[in-house]
Amino acid sequence: ANDTMVVTVHGGVDANQTDTTPPTITLNGDANLTLEQNTPYTEEGAMAVDDVDGTLTVGISGTVDTSKVGTYTLTYTAKDKAGNESSVTRDVTVAESTGTLTLTTLSLESNATTLNKGERAQLSVVATYSDHSTKAVDANITYIITPAQNAEVNGTTLTALKDGSVTVQAKVGTILSNAIDLNIIWVVNGHTLPPEPDPQVNNATLLGVDVNKNGVRDDVERWIYEEYKDKHPIYIDIAMQAGRAYKLVLETPEKAKEIRMKVNAPLFCSSYYEFEAQFFNDPILVHERIDTPVESKYFNNKNRNDVYRQYDHLLSGDSYSLPEDNEMKSLCDFNTSKYDKE
Q1: Residue 220 and residue 315 in contact, taking contact as beta carbons nearer than 8 Å
Q2: Which of 70, 171, 237, 253 has the highest count of CB atoms within 10 angstroms of its CB?
Q3: For residue 1, what pLDDT is reported?
């Protein structure tokens, strides 16, 4: 009898069969890694196994620079003897260090030191860290403004809201920057207004505060320029003349009859440019009383009002002549020629 032998072959590829299966690559460690900046990177490599050729060598391409923040991709490649190739990748992210560096100081600068009310300045903040590195920062900053109502900061832009001296500091966490001083002024029609006076100091005397010594109390001067800044410039000229005249009343009410014409001159000047100017080939520039609102601002408390009443009482009982129409223009105490051609 003939014996039959059965042979079973496990694994491998039949000699007549073509190998088309690429090797399998397995990474050692994670496919996605995150490192802090300046932390050493250790390459863990990968393993490659082929059904026919067994364990293969794995090639690695790509680099990781831990001194620079970013994401780096490493590629792992293996090829068997039949030419079948496969590859896998690993992403290594280098992140900004958070635990090893400490914020030590902040430096604050502004591109302007003097601003007109309503103008803007750009602020810049530079942070210094424990490794002496520096970086410009524009987020998570708290700005401390003194006085708080004089300016505001949106992002890195400071807007001047009110004239006066302003101190600004930047704060990140518990770290405060240097303080910078800004001077906010208020310029209207080319005229720099005096600072707003402290009400208690301003009202402590009859004459009040006049820091620029132009004969008009500062609070009234500021009101005049705010009230009439959008009207014809002659409004401000006449209102300032009225302010100077009312100062005379507070200084020497007992000389009422001597100063009467100077006190009334703003009224006649205003009246000329409201009515009489048309008869003398001059323009009509005024359309409302100007002296009366200034009067109410100047005699704004009991003491000042009492002095005005004293002045007015000394004038009562007598009759006074009014200036002729052609004389009223000459009672303006400012240069009127600039308005003649309008």
Answers
A1: no
A2: 237
A3: 45
pLDDT at 230: 95
The CA-based diameter of the chain, rounded to the nearest angstrom, is 166
The radius of gyration of the chain from alpha carbons, rounded to an integer in Å, stands at: 43
CB-based contacts of 93, cutoff 8 Å, min separation 6: 32, 33, 34, 35, 70, 71, 72
Calculated CA dihedral for residues 329, 331, 335, 339, nearest 10 degrees: -30
Outline where DSSP puts E strands in the chain.
Answer: 24-27, 32-36, 46-50, 54-56, 59-61, 70-79, 85-95, 103-110, 114-116, 120-129, 134-137, 142-146, 151-154, 157-160, 164-172, 175-176, 180-185, 187-188, 191-192
How far apart are the C-alpha atoms of 228 and 89, rounded to whole Å?
Answer: 74
Give CA–CA dist 103/137, Å, rounded.
Answer: 11
Question: Which residues lie closer than 8 Å to 318 by C-beta, 6 or more apart?
Answer: 257
Neighbouring residues of 46: CB distance < 8 A, sequence distance ≥ 6: 25, 26, 27, 28, 58, 60, 76, 88
Provide the mean pLDDT of the chain. Answer: 92
pLDDT tens-digit map of 142-184? 999 999 999 999 999 999 999 999 999 999 999 999 999 999 9
Q: How far is C-alpha 243 from the chain's CA centre?
A: 36
